[in-house]
Amino acid sequence: MSKLDLNALSDAELEALSTGNIAALSDQTLKMLAGEKPEAPSTGAVMAEAARKGVASFAAKAPGFRAQYGNQFEQAKQALVAS
Description:
Strand content: under 5%
Shape: elongated
Structural class: mainly alpha
Number of helices: 6
Order of helices and strands: HHHHHH
Oligomer: single chain
């Protein structure tokens, strides 16, 4: 049996795991606990997560970014946050 890396779990998932509330665990976490290889997240999911974590704000602050890409960045950011 291999060791599980619980560092990837959120605080909420760790708490749910410690109380036995498996209904609160994500499918990805359940697969990890079952020893299955996790699926790679979709590009859309990665982009949405990046937007939520503020990675997109770097591009908004980068010199010349808005001048070069106009409103495309803002529209894409809004679409990702809404998803």
